[in-house]
Amino acid sequence: MRVATDIGGTFTDLVYVDENGNIGIDKSSTTPPNFEKGVLDVIKKSGVDQSSISMFIHGTTVIINALTERKGAKTALITTKGFRDVLEIARGNRPDLFNVNYEKPTPFVERYLRREVDERMNYKGDVLRELNADEVKECIEYFKKEGVEAIAVSYLHSYRNPAHEQQTVQLIKELWPEVKVTASSDITQEWREYERTNTAVLNAYVQPAATTYIDRLENELKTQAEIDQRYIMQSNGGTTKFDKAKEAPINMVESGPVAGIFGAAVLGEMIGEKNIIAFDIGGTTAKCSLIENGEVKVSTDYYIERDNRSAGYPIKTPVVDIVEIGNGGGSIAWIDRAGSLKVGPQSAGANPGPVAYGQGGTEPTTTDANLLTGRLSPKNFDYNVNLDAVRSAIDTKIGNHFGISPEEAALGIIRIANSNMLNALKLISIRKGYNPQDFTLLAFGGGGSMHAPALALELGVKKVVVPIASPVFSAWGMLMTDLRHDYIQTYIKRMNDLAPEEIDRQWEEIERNALQHFSEEGMEAENVEFHRFADMRYLGQEHTVKVPVANGKWSEEVKKQAIENFHKLHEKNYTFKLEDAQTEIVNLHVTAFGKVEKPIISKIERTSSLAEAKKEDRDVYYENKGWVPTPVYDRDKLPTNEVITGPAIVEEKAAVTVIYEQQKLYLDDYGNIIIEKEDN
What we know:
alpha+beta; 6-stranded mixed beta sheet; 17 helices; Hydantoinase/oxoprolinase family protein; Oxoprolinase-like
């Protein structure tokens, strides 16, 4: 049996698949700060026979939480003489050009803990000045006195030659084995001094907490059962072993969310949908990502805490391209100073949660609004719901301000939440040159199916898919992943001057290192699959375009094809191409997959009727309609390929699907809900 667990801001999810392809799901409350307790709770609650677990895959928010809440280790930095302030200088590109009070983000390492040593490489990786080991020793003694818990080492041009960083790390481990140490060249081999240094710092900052958490989780699992295959989800959409995750925990910064995106691509292939907008609404956030022709888009231009007023903090590691906003089921509705209604980004979280939970929450949330308008039923909560308390909170906090009824106020909360989510969907599609009508919206998470049909009508999307196990779909996606590692090497060469045999040597070296990496994880070479990309640009440009290139030996014909593909992709991304301009490669990128045997998902057979699946008729409050009697169905009893016309509601454990007058719904052969717009 294979089990996957995913820690979210409100709930910890579990999905299991047995030997016959049967799927089971469950949820329990997330338990900060002891997140491993929530994992054990949900395993116990699911009733899984722990002795039969052969594979365990885990996604976690521990890393992103440690960064956003500033709960990492006391971290120091050792860098090249003259570059102590690179974290402070950062970049000159201000996100808010007209903000005269703009301040750059505060570095995670204070200046007194940033020390310089004498050493120097040039841009080719040639040694200009040898490393001064005595100065490194002085740094170590100083950091000991200051109570440092983790050290980042980032030297100039170490992406070309990591020798001095390796010597420094070795010296630190010999003189101070207790401290955690990160070399920038072990995390990324791309250029960009500021981004690379910040990534090394953030990895060091979270490493002690990540190591402690993984060790605790591993020890707790061992007390329950002996599981040989234990993996953790990475931000690039693949998995890695527990031990490897402790070395580079920054690769888990988006560990949980990306699993759902990858799962959407896998499911899309199963049902014949190659172009997908994956849309995940949880208790705290809404996340979306665009999948084109079955390809999950991965980038190393990732930032945390970046918005239209803050430059954020760059992380130069491969992360699935995601747009994320602070809107989910627990998002709080409030009135701003201008008197306008807002929803999020503040969240009631798991504790105290929405007013409906009866656990002390007093602020109205999206969940409360969906409950008051009849989209959710009090009977399906794990708590005794006091509907009068929910109505009173919405009326007092929102309705009275606008002089409207509690139901109208609740509908307003839903509309604002939908508007926020619609903007996120536009950012990932329209703003990047894609027409949403060419894509299928695949909605999951606890709130995905409730909001997606309304958003599809707004966007003009013709089809919505609510997948099997939709409330815990990110965990489902983990069961479908392979081991994955991305190897990105800065390699600046003009295409006109590039000799095929020269670039072949670079590809072969990267792939040889990848095979060694997989061998250490117990993966045979014949099960490793390589995908190659070249980050290319026009000569003199700053930005690059990622171009897929063929495996195998390069030739002049392969070079020519890569250039042609670059022109096409550049035009698609930036609306123009310069076919007479010189082109150059900036980075070589190899994605290596260690293929893991996947569970086979069985088709379902149901002989029940729609009448048997119907639970009740319930009054639901709709815009411009008021209260409308609406049929409610049980998803677990729906027959396959029987059409339901809207308005209608389909309920399942921990999720609800709401469709409207212009839509119809049916269950496909795999148990996915398919929603389409009715023909006029």
